[in-house]
Design goal:
48% of the residues lie in helices and 6% in strands. It is built from four helices and two strands; from the N terminus they run H-H-H-E-E-H. Helix 2 crosses helix 3 (40-54).
Length: 95
């Protein structure tokens, strides 16, 4: 991934850290601005390479209960914040 690249390794490592620690992902424009990279295509190519190494072809899908960053995906229908809000607001509609 780092072989034959003109971008210094320190910039790559900082980009890796920013990419991994970002909660909502990272855009090429924000990477370019934060690392003060000269061109947008360079930042885009760096992110493209970082994302491509995360892909593992032929992997099995996750099954059962999955917890990611304290967020549960799946579970019983009607359970959660929106279901509770609907019950609270039901009394207010008539007034």
């Amino acid at each position: 991934m780092f072989d034959r690249r003109r971008t210094p390794l320190t910039v790559w490592f900082e980009a890796c850290w920013m990419f991994a620690s970002g909660k909502d992902g990272m855009s090429a424009l924000s990477l370019q601005r934060s690392l003060e990279i000269g061109s947008y295509p360079t930042a885009w190519a760096m992110l493209h390479r970082l994302r491509s190494v995360l892909v593992r072809p032929g992997r099995d899908r996750l099954t059962g209960t999955v917890e990611v960053d304290e967020t549960y995906i799946g579970g019983a229908a009607g359970v959660g914040r929106r279901a509770c809000q609907g019950q609270e607001n039901a009394g207010r509609r008539g007034s």
